[in-house]
Amino acid sequence: MVTGSVHVGLDVGSTRTKAVAYDGAGRPVAEHHVATPWTTSAQGRTETSGAALLAGALAAVHGLLPRLGDPSRRVASLGVTGMAESGVLLDATGAESAPVVAWYDPRGAEEMAALPGCVAAAFTATTGLRADAQPSAATLAWGLRHGWRVTPASTWLTVPEHVVAALGGDRVAEPSLASRTGLLDTTRLVPADDLADALGLPRTLLPPLRRAGTSAGRVTLADADPRLRGAVLTVAGHDHPVGAVGAGATGAAHLFNGAGTADVLLRSAAGPVAAADRARLAAAGVSVGAHVLEDLSAVVGGVSAGVVLRRVLSLVGAVDGARRDAVDAAAALVPRPVPGVTVRAGGRGGDDVQVVVTREAEPAELLAAALHHVGEQTSALVDLMTSAVGPHTAALCVGGWTRMASVRALKQDVLPGVELADVALPGCRGAAALGALAAMGAHDQHDLTDLLAAWGTPLPAGVRPPHPAPSGGAL
After folding, report:
1. Which among 86, 221, 320, 333 has the fewest CB atoms less than 10 Å away?
2. What does pLDDT average to over the chain?
3. pTM higher than 0.90
């Protein structure tokens, strides 16, 4: 490893593509973000291209290089995480042959709804996913019906896998990402051939599996900055479990709650989850698949906390600043439930929030009622996970919402034994750590625990790395 080199974690998210550089001790030294490019048609279809995603990834990484200070400082490794269900379909020549459809785009819903009941049940039992529009297989089935050339020579890469391959790395499937495609038997970690047959898809779409933290080659792309070329690449995996790694939730029975734009609960579990439990979890919108960490399953669900809290704070005119701080502080003292005030997610649209008030109510009471609804959702989700995989032994909650006193109080009420940690960009940190592991020449993850221990406590959110003056030279 070059002295003074950095490890970069890249997180290709739904709205932002974020890159953070860490030194050999795990201290963040520079970061840069760009918007993730999407276009939405008049028909409500949201998509992009693999080329646009690669350009965004390069822009994010290149944008932090001038902030490293020393112009000779190089990137030793690049770990890439991000969204999982969206992906790039390649033809036999390696060229893109279809658009990249957003993971929340409804295309594929009809194809999945048309599956016979026994096939839909087998889909869930095999993949740990609900048979709806979200898995990659649904998008591919829609594409096949609408003229996409999906042949035995085609390859499907999730977004992080595509970025790694386009930078010069190997075409590989990382298990936690492949678990979101609907193309993988997530218990045996082999292609789900019978499901591919049922959907009319080739059995050969997934490339060979390769674990996060092992090398997927090096950056050789000519368009990459010279300081990036030669960096060891790894596909770090799905953003939620990678964020858990970055925040320090690496135990076999650890509950990780990312309370950011999405409020996600990820429960690690040793070994596979029973088929009956997988079906029960999936029926409630909870997925089961491979974790980034070897020999663990990831049980993943979410609650509508972000949209509920944003809508209510907007309603009471407390979106930010001193007004929000005042309402937040007051809401933390309001007993829950709040008589005469009900807030709940739902309605005609997925982002609808309903507020029912039967008396005059203060802004803090409206926020407290919203928190009560979020708490009920969270408790129900934890109870469901516990019924399938047993109680968690430790809980960690990170994310921007935890900066509010009322949210912290809620989390402590509904997540037994929770530790609240203010961690900056845990997905980038986890990806960088897995990249550093790959740069060590690791063939497994046995040294990851020691590496994370050496990196120490994550930097709190809101504390940003110093930005040395750019040293000159165009990127």
Report:
1. 320
2. 93
3. yes
